[in-house]
Amino acid sequence: MATASADERTRRRLRELREQAGLSLEEVGRHAGMAASTVSRLESGARRLTLGHLAPLARALGVSVDALLAPPERADPRVRSRAFTRHGNTFLPLTRAGAANGMHAYKVYYPAEERLPTPTVHDGHDWIYVLSGRLRLVLGEEDFVLEPGEAAEFSCRVPHWLGAVDGPAEALAIFGPQGERIHTR
Of 58, 56, 47, nearest to 14 (Cα)? Predict the structure, then answer.
């Protein structure tokens, strides 16, 4: 793989720093004294990045010009998170905040307790993969039992509910922002 040029690295770093700070193109442009479209074109390479752009962009991002020019540090790729319990289920986050376009992965422990299904409806899409035990999925008017090794993918606009069957169960779950908010908060 070819090494990125200093220009390419700086453009990538500009976008990374902006996204890490949670700033929009408009916000960076306003603080740097340039149009949002200019910032966008600088990040994409559609406009030539000059030395005159560096100081205002660095100031808008709250970093030094050196930080803007420096290659990104290699972060520890391991996700270190703590499990938490919501709605009787235990969630272990497997992704960091801001990962994968807002999608978040969890290992979910469903206890063996008997519960009446209480389906919810919200925007988004959920994906579940059963690791151990058996999971009951109530999806609209249908009722499914998922065995280890089975996966289910469904629109969250359909009333849905998950619970363990005949003992505890564990699953991997991927939620979009709406599903994460409903299921884990």
Answer: 58
Coil, helix or strand at residue 64: coil
The total of structural domains in the chain comes to 2
Amino acid at 143: D
Residue 180 sits in a domain of what CATH number?
Answer: 2.60.120.10
Distance in angstroms (rounded) separating the CA atoms of residues 59 and 57: 5
Q: In the structure, what pLDDT confidence band is assigned to residue 141 with cuts at 50, 70 and 90?
A: very high
Tell me the C-alpha distance between 176 and 24, whole Å: 21
pLDDT of 4 strictly over 70: no
Under 8 Å CB-to-CB from 71, ≥6 apart: which residues?
9, 13
Q: Say if residues 45 and 12 touch (Cβ distance below 8 Å).
A: no
Q: Which domain holds residue 92?
A: 84-184
pTM higher than the cut 0.70:
no
- Read off the tokens for 30: 């306003």
